[in-house]
Amino acid sequence: MDESVLVTKAENYLKEIANDNIILDNIDDFANFKSLYFKLSDRLETLKNLRKAMDAQGYSTPFASLNKYGNKAVAEVSLDEVSENSRHNQMFRMKANAKKNILDRVKSAIDSHLIALGNLEQYGYLKCNSCYKKYSISEYRLMNAKCKCKSESFSFKINRENTYRIEIIPYLPLSGNYRVLMNDLTKYGRNSFKKIINTLKQERTGHVKTISLLIRYNNKNRWLRKKVSFNSEFVENYEEELRKEYGRNVRIEKLEFHRTKPAIIDDKHARTAIALGYVRYAEEIVEDIKDDIFKRQLSDFKRINNYDSIIAKYKNYSPSFIDEFDIAELEEWRESKINEEFRRMKYVDRFNKLNRSLKRDIKTRENIERTLFENVAHSLIIWDVFKYYLTTSVSNRKSNSGPFPYIRVELDRQQRKVFQTTFPNVIEMLNQFTYIKIILVNDMDLILYEKFKFEKELKNSNIKINHPALGAAHLHLNSDIDLKTISNVFNVNESKIKKEIKNIDNIKNPKSEKSKKFLDLIKK
Questions:
Q1: What is the DSSP secondary structure assignment for residue 323, as one 8-state letter?
Q2: Strand runs (DSSP E) across 279-361, as ranges?
């Protein structure tokens, strides 16, 4: 396919996605759920094919040919052709930028669709009405809506034990327009976005990937310098390998170990899409509840609304008698009109200074935005990631990353530090003003450590585990949160949690000699 045709095709397809609003109304109805899942799944396949075509045409390195052309041109063209060469160079650069940008958007769209599909996959499942076997929606589609028992009758169930937040789906950059969406965030939304990105970028201690050396060796009575690299398998014996290749007198002048440092979510576009989805969803939550909060915290809610309205009225207004390019005069006029309105409303004194109570309300509002609104999205994603690790098995996280594509199977101590920060006031606000179920958990990082440690003890055993209940059990055993509250938030029956508490106790503290020997064997 011609390059310009491929770019145009991708742009048109992304525009088509952008114009199709995602609606989650009645998503618990199977017809609506299936329609949305199939639509997103079909789009994902088309986007993957577009990316495959782009990779085949070198869109990942669009400036390579430009550099080659530029070097050749400098050496071969005459002075009379410099202008023509410059014009051609600019044209190629524009094409290279177009390739780079469209590939970037397609990658973002792919990851956004993966997140959306992962949330839907966690949200609902199908149950055969004949043999009662359970199927995920992806399995249901692969087998063409026919069970292995030949039955075509299914019931749709909501999996309330799983971790998902389908509410973020409409707020994801499904058309790859993440830059546009980032620019549209509120001030507190932008700060929240940065916090989430930094959280998801938290890196773990890496393993050595390659070793780079600058060596000095003797070759036919001449001392030469050379750069050498080895992969990770030579970490322990790189000196021995050097002597084999360059003789016993080889000298190392410089040595560098290059380590892999995987992040919690180890993909740039996935991190951006998740952060945007959560932040934009949080902004919608804040928009719904902020008036109730301000009415309780501010001395005069109506006054501060009037204050905002006056500023908004003149902020972008340009009178016809002032040249729009005369920025200084325009700003001076706007400021004078705002102060005039403020004096009329008695919001300022004769020196144009805000009165104390209004000034105090403005500071209170800023503090609410900074300490509460800014941390809503962060609180939600920390809770969701924490719950996801608690309620899933190692094998499940390896085979299916669910709502968090490219998430690490296990976190090390460095990465678990992000769970040390909690926002009690935000959680209290969400519980009071929304239907979101979330609880304050202290020492999340230590609870995850206990869960990961137990997974290693559980490895190779044939004990049947209910993993959502197991996660709830770990939370109960390692916190002072009562069983009823945990059962309610995790949507897991108390009896199931108690059963997993017994399993944990039996594995950690075996009673019989036979059990002790068995556990010693599986640990090996």
A1: -
A2: none
- Residue 186, φ and ψ in degrees, nearest 5: -70, 175
Count the neighbouring beta carbons within 10 Å of the beta carbon of residue 419.
23
In Å, how far from its chain's centre is CA 331?
A: 40
CB distance 114 to 51 below 8 Å: no
Nearest to 307 by CA among 345, 281, 277: 345
**pLDDT digit string (tens) for 397-440?**
988 878 999 999 999 888 999 999 999 999 999 999 999 999 99
What is the C-alpha separation between 482 and 43, in angstroms, rounded?
44
Taking only the tens place, the pLDDT of each residue in 289-317 is: 999 999 999 999 999 999 999 999 888 77
Contact yes or no for 457/507 (Cβ under 8 A):
yes
How many Å apart are CA 377 and CA 282, to the nearest integer?
Answer: 5
- Max Cα-Cα span within the chain: 95
Residue 68 pLDDT more than 60? no
Residue with tokens 């996605």: 17
From CA 109, how far away is CA 174, in angstroms rounded?
A: 5
Does residue 317 or residue 65 have the better pLDDT?
Answer: 317
> Measured between alpha carbons, how far is 524 from 518 in angstroms, rounded to an integer?
10
pLDDT in tens, 98-148: 888 999 999 999 999 999 999 999 999 999 999 999 999 999 999 999 999
Report the run of H or E that residue 483 belongs to, with start and end: helix 483-490
Partnered with residue 212 across adjacent β-strands are 229, 256
SS (H, E, C) 266-286: CCHHHHHHHHHHHHHHHHHHH
C-beta separation of 484 from 494 below 8 A: yes
CB distance 417 to 178 below 8 Å: no
Are 495 and 502 in contact by the 8 Å Cβ rule? The answer is no
The sheet with strand 251-259 has its strands ordered as 222-231, 208-219, 251-259
Of 342, 293, 335, nearest in space to 317 by CA: 335
Distance in angstroms (rounded) separating the CA atoms of residues 361 and 307: 11
Whole-angstrom Cα distance, residue 162 to residue 115? 15
Q: What is the pTM of this model?
A: 0.85
Q: What is the mean pLDDT of the chain?
A: 88
DSSP H stretches of helix in 372-466: 376-391, 394-399, 413-416, 424-433, 444-458
CA dist., res. 247 & res. 251, Å (int):
10
Residue 486, SS3?
helix
Composition of the chain by helix, strand, coil, percent to 5 = 60, 10, 30
Closest Cα partner for 410 from 428, 392, 425, 422? 392
The SS3 of residue 503 is: helix
